[in-house]
Amino acid sequence: MKKLWLVYALLIGMFLVYVLNYKLQQANTTDPWETAGLRGNIEDAYVMVTFQSGIDYWKSVLKGFEDAAEELNISVEYHGSTQHNANEQMTVLEQVIAKKPAGIAISAVNSKLLTATINKAVESGIPVVLFDSGAPDSKAYSFLGTDNYDAGIEAAHKMAELTGAKGAVAIITTPDQHNHQQRTDGFRDTIRTDYPAMQLIAVKDGRGDQVASRAATEQILSQYPQLAGIFATESNGGIGVAEAVEAYKGNSNSPKIISFDTDKGTLDLVKEGKIAATMAQGTWNMGYWSLMELFHLHRDLAADPSAYANHKPLPVPDLVDTGIDVVTRANVDSYYAK
Questions:
Q1: 194-211 per-position pLDDT tens digit
Q2: Three-state SS string across the chain, please?
């Protein structure tokens, strides 16, 4: 019996030693990830930079950015050019860089013209990630957004479904914006390779503007009155296209319109049947994961400023696909902001 009690006492003693050792290890750790979870400093400010800053499209992106900030206990700011203008956005970005924020998430209005300013931020030690519209030749650490080439492919397949895979189609796009170039390429390549009875007869610059897109559409309709469909690669363009088609009285068979994004104006036109479909992006994901990546980058660079110059592996992926959905009259109600 005494031997049994000795065994019990030994086991209890070993357990107490284990618990004490574990507690000492926890008390001595210097890794905040082990003790406090994924938490930052409220004094660290992370900045989102966009263009056409007043449009509805950015609201969901900013909401994701803010939700991530709340989880991480950090501060965020939002700045952007008021117009679809690269020089204005460069000025805004220069002002942000001068404040030396903990990180910058930017959607580049022009992939070529913004590259040097993005590189300036990175070279000054500020982590930068791109979202929605990229600058692939820049030194930004990551791009988060739609696989825009695939989105163009999806739009082409939907257009073929709507038109019976025959007839002439056109594109209204923004040629100097990288994501719109990719959507255009995906649409064009798919029509050319998969649908021999369809012809892409025009690609026009809508300048990301409702009025310019309407004018471009009117020009196409005057030349091709039997047009079967139009793909607009962004929401302002889609609304302008719908206005032009609605006003055009010379064509009893109105062309089918596919647009992009889920602002209220576009969704209303889908619900009314004036836009046949629109492509919904994962905008909240763009904002949320942009800030999560910046937080990791800032933490690593603060610990070792020369880390990535010395080929240390990045803590974030080069590319994050935030997804795409096709919105039609059948499911449009699900995409209105709650």
A1: 999 999 999 999 999 999
A2: CHHHHHHHHHHHHHHHHHHHHHHHHHHHCCCHHHHCCCCCCCCCEEEEEECCCCCCHHHHHHHHHHHHHHHHCCEEEEEECCCCCHHHHHHHHHHHHHCCCCEEEECCCCCCCCHHHHHHHHHCCCCEEEECCCCCCCCCCEEEECCHHHHHHHHHHHHHHHHCCCEEEEEEECCCCHHHHHHHHHHHHHHHHHCCCEEEEEEEECCCCHHHHHHHHHHHHHHCCCCCEEEECCHHHHHHHHHHHHHCCCCCCCCEEEEECCCHHHHHHHHCCCCCEEEEECHHHHHHHHHHHHHHHHHHHHHCCCCCCCCCCCCCCCEEECCEEEECCCCHHHHCCC
Q: Exposed, middle or buried, 66 (CB in 10 Å: 0-12/13-18/19+)?
A: middle
Residues 6+ apart with CB under 8 A from 258: 155, 158, 159, 162, 229, 230, 231, 232, 238, 275, 276, 277, 278, 279
Burial (0-12, 13-18, 19+ Cβ within 10 Å), 2 = exposed
Structure tokens at 89: 């956005």
Amino acid at residue number 196: P
In which residue are the tokens 């805004």 written? 92
Nearest by Cα to 159 from 277, 28, 251: 277
Residue 234 to residues 210, 219, 266, Cα–Cα distance (Å): 10, 19, 10
What is the dihedral angle through the alpha carbons of 246, 249, 254, 257, rounded to the nearest 10 degrees?
A: -30
Residue 131 in this model has a pLDDT that exceeds 60: yes
What is the residue type of 212? A
- Record the tokens describing residue 314, joined without a space: 């990045």
pLDDT digits (tens, 9 = 90+) for 259-287: 999 999 999 999 999 999 999 999 999 99
| Token duo for residue 289 | 């994961």
